[in-house]
Write a structure and sequence with these properties.
Shape: flat
Helix content: over 70%
Number of helices: 3
Radius of gyration: 34 Å
Number of strands: 0
Distance between the termini: 95 Å
């Protein structure tokens, strides 16, 4: 088989693969867009959400006497940690500004002393 024939086979294969993929995607979309399918999974999602909420509340209730952190506790601690890091960064910037100002003052005073001396 020559190089050109091999390329033609690959092009035909690619073209047929794309056609098949499009047909398959359209079939899946038409199945997913059926009202029964949407309603069934919509109602299951509501039930699952209610179960998850009850489970979260139970975990929070149990966590108090067992003294382990909940998801909310970890989230709050993370927020506080981020806020602290931001404040430390601001303080570092201010300290650097003050140090630069002190260096400038030192240079000015040393220049003034050397001119007078």
């Amino acid at each position: 088989m020559s190089n050109k024939q091999a390329l033609d086979v690959y092009r035909i294969l690619k073209l047929n693969g794309l056609k098949f993929e499009n047909m398959l995607n359209q079939s899946i979309q038409s199945q997913l867009n059926q009202k029964f399918f949407i309603q069934t999974f919509g109602s299951h999602n509501q039930v699952a959400a209610a179960v998850i909420r009850k489970l979260q509340n139970s975990i929070e209730t149990i966590s108090i006497p067992l003294n382990f952190p909940t998801k909310k506790d970890v989230a709050n601690a993370t927020k506080i940690n981020i806020q602290t890091e931001e404040k430390v960064d601001l303080l570092n910037e201010k300290v650097n500004e003050i140090l630069l100002s002190l260096e400038e003052l030192k240079q000015l005073t040393s220049e003034g002393l050397s001119e007078n001396g």
